[in-house]
Amino acid sequence: MSFEQRIKSLAAKAEKTRGMLETEEATKNALVMPFIAALGYDVFDPTEVVPEFTADVGIKKGEKVDYVIRRGDDIVMLIEAKKVAADLAIEHSSQLFRYFTVTKARIAVLTNGIVYRFFSDLEENNKMDEKPFLELNLLDLRESLINEVNKLSKSSFDLDNMLVAASDLKYMREIRATLERQLETPDEELVKFFFQQANPNGRFVQSAKEQFSQLVKRTLSVFISDKVGDRLRSALARADGSAVDDSLPTREVGSEAAPEEQDDAKQEANDGIVTTEAEKEGYRIVKAIVCDLLVPERVTYRDSKTYFAVLVDDNNRKPICRLHFNRSRKYIGTFDAEKAETRHPVEGPDGIYTVREQLRATAAHWLSLDAVEKPTIVVPTEC
């Protein structure tokens, strides 16, 4: 079993058992030790894994860190565990800071069994950073992050390579967090910058600030959704070894494929893209929900390795929804009028009915644009 498979198996276990784990000890036994084992270390071999490790620091005596990972005579990783759902604020793990300074470890992990935060000393030698360079969430796995964590596994351990990657990962994480904040509430400096670009001779008074704050927020959302979103997902998918192909052929589920469509289907299979029964069922449900608004023949789909898109007129710029069913936590993505995607967790295809109104609103939106772009009357066929 590969490292990725072991992590996904542990993620499935975490999803099922997290509600039963009420203590730190239960969390360590059920999730943290299996995580260490998934990294390839023998949790019962003290030459590799030492539980309740003690290294007295200054006047602090008898404090322990939950686990240390050894390679030969060197301690390479410290792990501090909290119970499931515990706050992972760094100020609650002072012993992790102290042990980092008195051991040769360059990697420290703070976890509650579900979320694993990885720290190093990128800012100051031998002093643990206050912010993690990587965070792995078992309930929201990303293959690119699994690949990074794999660099710390026993068989692939490469500390130098990990530390080089850690620096980039840390700053990318901070940039992403900044972008998320700006998308939610743009800073005044950013709003003023765009105001001056759009209106060089204007005065940035309070009314302009209020107006442009909303305009900047909306424009950033639309821009990222329209211009960056698909390419970013494709780039991430390629980094994970799976390329997204938005030019795949579209046909209705259950219809006979023409010879050329069969050839395309073979090519799709060669690309490793498999349309699952759950995705097909989801497509039929979406089609039924909007069939009194859109002619059924207009509701099509495109499948890729990262999501299954339900579209209007086979047009990638007219999405009705996206089914994210190829991961441990399933979602359906709905779209607003600005094509910003909102993901809703679902158990499977039946969960699509919980966003029925959003799907119908999106279908009605595309129908209203038809009237503007091409004022012809389309009479829906029977569902």
Describe the structure.
The protein has helices at residues 3-17, 24-38, 94-102, 143-149, 159-184, 188-198, 206-239, 259-270, 277-289, 356-373; strands at 49-54, 64-71, 74-81, 107-111, 115-119, 134-137, 299-303, 308-312, 315-324, 331-335, 341-345. The protein folds into three domains: 3-173, tt1808, chain A, CATH 3.90.1570; 185-239, no CATH class; 259-373. The chain has a six-stranded mixed β-sheet with strand order 1-2-3-4-5-6. Strands 7-8-9-10-11 form a five-stranded antiparallel β-sheet. A hairpin with a 4-residue loop joins strand 7 (299-303) and strand 8 (308-312). It is of the alpha+beta class and 383 residues long. The protein contains ten helices and eleven strands. Residues 240-270 and 375-379 have low confidence and may be disordered.
Using brief descriptors, characterize the structure shown.
single chain, 383 residues, alpha+beta, tt1808, chain A, 6-stranded mixed beta sheet, 10 helices, 11 strands, globular, UCP035009_HsdR_All3000-type, Type I restriction enzyme R protein N-terminal domain-containing protein, HSDR_N
The biggest beta sheet is recorded as:
6 strands, mixed
- Overall pLDDT metric: 80
The name of the CATH topology of the largest domain is tt1808, chain A
What share of residues is helical? Answer: 40-55%
Strand order of the largest sheet: 1-2-3-4-5-6
Low-confidence stretches: 240-270, 375-379
Domain Type I restriction enzyme R protein N-terminal: 24-126
Protein name: Type I restriction enzyme R protein N-terminal domain-containing protein
Organism: Enhygromyxa salina
Pfam family, one: HSDR_N_2
